[in-house]
Each structure stands twice: as structure tokens, then as C-alpha cells.
Specification:
alpha+beta; Glutaredoxin; 2 domains; 5-stranded mixed beta sheet; 3-stranded antiparallel beta sheet; 53% helix
Length: 263
């Protein structure tokens, strides 16, 4: 009887494991094949757009804006094909939200998923009352795809476990350096907003959009390393200088520049 009981337990356990593996495989299949949850698919150059509604007339313009930002990145690959999944009625963005949580957007593998409410004309996506610049968001998430394309699964986060400021700072750097290339001005913005804003989780810009403070801090450090120290992104990933020491170096540079400007 005991032997039969143990065999039954093993059979039940095997069935559970098989069921779980099937469900995980099924979920991965859907995540990697968004076409299953969209009514329409449109191709523009190296971009494939999955959508349910008719594309907004401003869509291509925002796409070209983000592409112009990407072309300045050292990771840019003109032959890399990207898929963009819109939040226009499909269950796909909601599925990703249930997996990773709320976000303005998500970039992984070769996919950009817009998860907020998009306003193509005014160039922002909105989530919980906060706005993120849309063309910059597209560029930010596309850089995450370029990171994966360049370094591969095992040398990309989360597998590679690079510090957050290095992995998130570079997409912010690529997305924002055209409009916010003055590092002194950007550091000053951070100092001013920290001194006068009660809400310290986000930094606000002139176009009334925001970025999380942790991303803004990462962007400043990235801009300092790449523009002031003249490092490449690949070399920065290998560099062992801590975030704390890098920040100390940057602030020392900032004070020196400020004194020099005032003299």
C-alpha cells in the first residue's frame, strides 16, 4: 500500500510539473508572439507595429524622432528589426503589466511595448496622471532592445546583473541628450527640484513630462562618464568604479565648472 501511495504522489507531482511547464511555455509563446493578441500588423522599414486601431497620423513622425536619437548610439544597428506593441485595446500590454507591473513602457528582446495612454499629437504617454515624453520613451525602450542585441541574453540584465545606473542610464542618455545635453544645467535642475519639491520620486521637464529620479540620477552619471570622461559604454560596463565614487567625481567636476563660470 505504501509503495502504491508513493507512486501516486510521484504521478501527481509529475503531472503538476508538466502542467506548470506547459503553462509557462504557453505564456512565453504569447509574449514572444504578440501578433496572437492583435488584430492588425503594419510594417515601416525595420519596424513592425502591432495594433488594433488605425494608426495615428502623427505615428510615423514620432517614430522618426526616436530613430534619429537611436542613430547616435554606439549600439545602433541599422539592420536590427524592432516590433512595437501599442496599447490600443489589445490584451497584450495588460498581460505584460500583470507580469512586470505598471510602467510607461517596456523594452525587451526586440519588442517595445507601450503601456500608458498615448497622445501622439502632443508627444507624451500618460500613466496615473504623469506624462513621459513619447519619442524619448520609444528611444529609451529601443536601447534596451539594442543592449540585448549587442550583448546577448547572458551579458544583459537581469542575467548580467549590471548596476541599475549603468543599465538604465544609457537608454536615458541616448533618449535625452539631444534636448538636454548640458550636464551642468541638468545637475542644477536636480538640485533645485530636490530643494523645492515635496514629491522626490520624479524630475520634471519644461514640456511637463517627467522621469523617475532614479533614472535621472543614472542619466547624469552616464552623461558624465561618456561626455566628460570620454568613456565608451562598453568600457563603462567593465569599469569597477562604484556609483558612489562616480557621483563624487561628477559633483567635484560640477563645482569646479560652476566656480570657473562665475569667475
Amino acid at each position: 500500500m505504501k509503495k502504491d501511495h508513493n507512486q501516486n504522489i510521484r504521478r501527481i507531482g509529475l503531472k503538476l510539473i508538466t502542467t506548470v511547464l506547459f503553462l509557462v511555455g504557453f505564456l512565453i509563446g504569447i509574449v514572444l508572439n504578440p501578433t496572437l493578441l492583435y488584430a492588425k500588423k503594419t510594417t515601416f522599414g525595420n519596424y513592425t507595429i502591432f495594433h488594433n486601431s488605425q494608426l495615428d497620423k502623427n505615428f510615423i513622425y514620432r517614430l522618426e524622432q526616436s530613430k534619429a536619437l537611436l542613430q547616435k548610439s554606439e549600439l545602433y544597428d541599422a539592420n536590427f528589426k524592432l516590433e512595437i506593441c501599442l496599447n490600443d485595446g489589445s490584451l497584450y500590454p495588460k498581460l505584460l503589466e500583470n507580469i512586470v507591473g505598471q510602467a510607461f513602457g517596456l523594452g525587451f528582446y526586440n519588442k517595445i511595448v507601450l503601456m500608458g495612454k498615448v497622445n501622439w499629437k502632443d508627444n507624451f504617454t500618460e500613466l496615473n496622471g504623469y506624462k513621459f515624453n513619447l519619442s524619448q520613451l520609444l528611444a529609451h525602450e529601443a536601447v534596451h532592445c539594442l543592449q540585448f542585441n549587442k550583448f546577448g541574453l547572458w551579458k544583459s540584465n537581469p542575467m548580467a546583473n549590471y548596476p541599475t545606473w549603468k543599465w538604465e542610464g544609457y537608454p536615458e542618455y541616448v533618449a535625452r541628450r539631444k534636448t538636454d545635453s548640458n550636464l551642468q544645467k541638468s545637475i542644477t535642475r536636480k538640485i533645485n527640484q530636490e530643494n523645492f519639491q515635496e514629491n522626490g520620486w520624479a524630475i520634471s521637464f519644461e514640456d511637463r513630462t517627467i522621469t523617475p529620479s532614479v533614472y535621472y540620477d543614472a542619466w547624469l552619471l552616464m552623461q558624465y562618464c561618456l561626455d566628460v570622461k570620454k568613456m565608451t559604454y562598453k568600457n563603462l560596463l567593465k569599469d569597477t568604479t562604484s556609483q558612489q565614487n562616480t557621483n563624487a567625481q561628477m559633483m567635484k567636476w560640477f563645482v569646479t565648472q560652476k566656480i570657473s563660470t562665475e569667475e
